[in-house]
Amino acid sequence: MVLESVLSAIFQVILFSVIPFIWWFFTARKQQSFLRWIGLKKLVIENKGKYFIWFLFIIVLLTLPLTIITYLYLDSSILASNRFTGLGFSALIPAFFYAIVQTGFSEELLFRGFLLKRFMHRFGFQIGNIVQSLLFGILHGLMIFSFIPFGVVVLVVMSAAFAGYFLGWINERKSNGSILTSWCIHGISNLIASFMAMFNVL
After folding, report:
1. Cβ density class 3-29: b for 16+ within 10 Å, e for less
2. pTM higher than 0.90, yes or no?
């Protein structure tokens, strides 16, 4: 299970990096490195107190609504974290790779690192952030579209999009454009969901 999780995480990161890398190669490789262009750079935080409050708030925003929707409306067996159900601490390493690398890193790289920065460049921050967050929400809705009623899909899309907006906001407004913040938040939120599955909380 550990090897499978590691390989799956690496594959998804590569898959989500292909289009951003090609785009960078043909448009920006002479201006800056790929990692800096995608937002993998040092955090610059002006007010650490406010930053920490926003950090915690967005973790709750990412975790709580989707947990409530799952509890009320979804069969937890359709969730990606279901693979860890009831496994306890034996699933710790696979859950870590799933939460931090496979979903957290790959999705932040694509949505906040690539799409938001390209949309911002073209349309400005507000429109760019709204567009990337809607795409983020729609992706999460599409993953469960065939399993649940349409109204619940809309709730999932709205919750994920709202969280996606704040992930983009904290990167660009509080972290000097670094995706390290949203990667940490996203990874922690996914890890919480994985822990809930591991210990049968839901």
Report:
1. eebbeebeebbeebbeebbeebeeeee
2. yes
